[in-house]
Amino acid sequence: MPDRRGIAGTTLLVTVAAAALTACGSGTSSSAGTSSSGSSFSSTRSPAAAEPSGPEPYSTQAFVVPLTLEVDTWLTSVTPEEDSAHLVYWSAAVDDSRVRFLVPVVTYVPGTGSPTDPPADFVSYLHSQPDFQLEDEAGTEVDGRPATVMTATSQPGRAEGYYDGSLGCVSSDAEIDDPVGCFGLQPDRELRLAVIDLGDETLLAWARIAKDSPDAPELFEHFETMLSSIRFR
After folding, report:
1. Which residues does the annotated region (Disordered) include (predicted)?
2. For 32-58, what is each residue's pLDDT tens digit?
3. Given a cut of 60, is residue 5 above it in pLDDT?
4. CA end-to-end distance (rounded Å), the chain
């Protein structure tokens, strides 16, 4: 007669081994499921839209300065939210950040409330404003055109609207407090700003993010890569 104790012992060992294998498999699955990227700028597009693994070209349609540039997946779409005569812009899903390209029609010197022609020497104008804070300034070129890149914001403590329009507006009819028509250096925002000299006019391009955001360095790095891809047509 077979030894029932031996059979029972063998069955117990098989059961324990199977349970151990199951536990190991479950642990592996759980660990894989909780891994994630530490970057705030992983693709912000939907899975269907995010299939391309790298930048995609975009050519402006209505902008007065025709250009083509590479749009990477840290922006929400290859197609900008606006492509009009004097403004092109995209959004990124980090700290309400934006990337804008503006050819100003008028500019409001801070505190004046009166529109003027955009300064011929825009960099000198920026430096002439005592309440502007300009850092990390460097000369460069954008597709062969002279440019100056800087990090820019403004001093707090002024009345609301004081800095509105201090970069410029899309038309002479735009209201100075129109958030999609007039743009300025605001104390709660930080910009990586490029001033590009086109001869007869100035092209302003910037990446905007909340002041003191920990994501600012990465946003600004992406923006400067985008600048380097610009080709004027």
Report:
1. 25-57
2. 333 344 556 655 554 444 455 689 999
3. no
4. 94
Architecture of domain 56-232: 3-Layer(aba) Sandwich (3.40)
Cα–Cα distance measured from residue 151 to residue 74, given in angstroms and rounded to the nearest whole number: 20
Q: Give the global pTM.
A: 0.80
- Single out the residue of 81, 18, 216 nearest to residue 135, CA to CA: 216
pLDDT digits (tens, 9 = 90+) for 171-201: 999 999 999 999 999 999 999 999 999 999 9
Domain spans, the chain: 1-35, 56-232
123-173 pLDDT, tens digit per residue, is 999 999 999 999 999 999 999 999 999 999 999 999 999 999 999 999 999
What's the CA gap between 233 and 231, in Å, rounded? 6
SS3 at position 25: helix
- Characterize the bridge pairing of strands 97-102 and 202-210: antiparallel
CA dist., res. 181 & res. 178, Å (int): 5
Q: Furthest-apart CA pair in the chain: how many Å?
A: 108
